Amino acid sequence: MAPSLDDESSLFNFVVRDGNGVKGIVDSGISKVPRPYIQPPAEQINKKNASKCEIPPIDLSKLDGPEHDEVANQIVRAAETLGFFQVVNHGVPIQLLDTLKQTAHNFFGLPAERKAVYRKEVSPSPLVKYGTSFVPEKEKALEWKDYISMAYTNENEALQQWPMECRDVALPYLKTSHEMVKKLLDALMANLGVELDDSNIDAFIGKKMVNMNFYPTCPNPELTVGVGRHSDMGTLTILLQDGIGGLYVKVPEDIDMEKKGEWVEIPPIPGALVINIGDMLQIWSNGRYKSAEHRVRTTSTKSRVSILIFTSPQATQKVAPLPQVVEKDGMAHYREFLFSDYMNSFFGNAHDGKKSLDFAKVNFS
């Protein structure tokens, strides 16, 4: 039974409590977007006005050869400007990436009651959460998205607690991407004067999570967003797009690039992974690296999936600008804090651009 589109309480219960998600609204046969999902005009995404990001992908296989320094510089340059780049020859099997996309479609195609088992309030595991939007109770307009989130502690717990429909592909995705993440972080940290090894790498990427996102078709995509404007809170995000597209990144105002302040689309490239700089890398680098402000558009033609790996410090880790960078810069632009406190602030507010960083900024006034 479809909810009353005019009754927000009924709609919210149908979508969130009963586990139907946004997919359930679409499957009910709606012809227009329910009012709680209509974004303010300033947040709506005009596809016609946006250009595509024409930066070619970085070939990570060349990090292991004579072109290492040149490729490392490409990674650093991307982190210092857009905060987003695409990589190919990354070591994650293409067949696995294709299976991941199909697995995501399969999971979100399950009956509502099967997915509702993993709702935050009732999930049998603290590692797994099924939900919709970002922080529905805090948002003025809801995001047109459903997701399943799987936190990684160790392989045994993942095998026991992650949904059986996802774990056999989500876990290899996490494991096979680890070497790539280490190489990327090694290049970024070396540029800051920090040498990575097994003794200190967990300080940067000790916490990992796999998310599968589902963006159902939308009757009025121009009125909604799949994900609102935000930067990611962690260290590096690895994103697998499908071929539909809809990911937009804001070109920062304070860098030497064309299209400053504009939104550019990151076009899907077959076999590529998208790398996204998070807030923690911006803070460790004292602002040299830019966490990317990004958002996702919906579409009326075909449901879209994306599969992400979020890497971040452990909750108990202290974070502050690296002393090597502060010494060069003469001052720290961010204060020291516990990562758990940053997480609480991040998840305690609706998406709002890069305001998440205000939590850690040093006020010079």
UniProtKB/TrEMBL annotation:
Gene3D superfamilies found in the cross-reference section: B-lactam Antibiotic, Isopenicillin N Synthase, Chain
InterPro entries found in the cross-reference section: DIOX_N (IPR026992), IPNS-like_FE2OG_OXY (IPR044861), IPNS-like_sf (IPR027443), Oxoglu/Fe-dep_dioxygenase_dom (IPR005123), Plant_2OG-oxidoreductases (IPR050295)
Domain Fe2OG dioxygenase: from-to ranges: 200-313
CC cofactor: L-ascorbate
One annotated GO molecular function: dioxygenase activity
SUPFAM superfamilies registered for this protein in UniProt: Clavaminate synthase-like
One GO process term, biological-process aspect: coumarin biosynthetic process
Keyword field: Dioxygenase, Iron, Metal-binding, Oxidoreductase
A Pfam match: DIOX_N
Family: Belongs to the iron/ascorbate-dependent oxidoreductase family.
Official protein name in the record: Fe2OG dioxygenase domain-containing protein
